[in-house]
Specification:
Length: about 190
């Protein structure tokens, strides 16, 4: 039951954060919506910042697993990029916009704990993309320098980040699936030129 209340608190906070900013969210508001006392909320979290951090961590775990689903060292680099594009499309098509919370977290970047979580999200996704590129180098599918692999990984993450931002401002995923599937092909073609 304890894990259920903790998840309930995080679910409510996520819904609030999708629509409002961190500063306007209160523990009292979360408690009222969850029909629990504020004292009960504090049994699970030290305060709203820790709820926010838990929501960010949960979001990261979900997005990372979905983003790299099907991606592995046994695939060709082209197939892995295809999976990344397909996974991105499916995430945007099915997502409830919870990734807006990550962008809102940047307004709290001066808080060291929030900055630490954002840094981990950024670096681990970038590292995952870089790993896909390195698999291609190891299998001699592509021939690029390590520095070029780093730049390419950052470029790919930058494009993906732009797509996520476009989705937020458009409030929907209005792009065809081919757009995302071609994303992988475009990056692969850049690698083999």
């Amino acid at each position: 039951m304890a894990e259920g209340k903790r998840e309930l608190i995080m679910d409510i906070a996520e819904e609030i954060l999708i629509k409002a900013n961190y500063k306007s969210m209160t523990t009292l508001q979360i408690a009222k919506i969850g029909k629990i006392s504020e004292a009960t909320l504090y049994k699970y979290f030290k305060g709203k910042k820790y709820i926010f951090l838990s929501v960010l961590e949960r979001f990261y775990d979900n997005i990372y697993n979905n983003f790299f689903e099907g991606v592995n060292s046994g695939n060709t680099i082209s197939k892995n990029f295809y999976f990344i594009g397909e996974n991105l499309y499916n995430m945007l098509k099915n997502e409830n916009m919870s990734y807006k919370i990550v962008y809102k977290a940047y307004s709290e970047i001066d808080d060291e704990k929030i900055k630490e979580v954002l840094k981990r999200i950024f670096n681990e996704i970038l590292s995952g993309i870089r790993e896909v590129i390195n698999w291609g180098i190891e299998k001699h599918e592509i021939d690029i320098k390590e520095i070029d692999a780093e730049i390419l990984a950052m470029s790919m993450w930058g494009v993906i980040d732009s797509i996520l931002r476009k989705h937020i401002v458009d409030d929907e995923c209005d792009m065809e699936s081919d757009y995302f599937l071609n994303l992988g092909a475009i990056f692969f073609n850049l690698l083999i030129k």
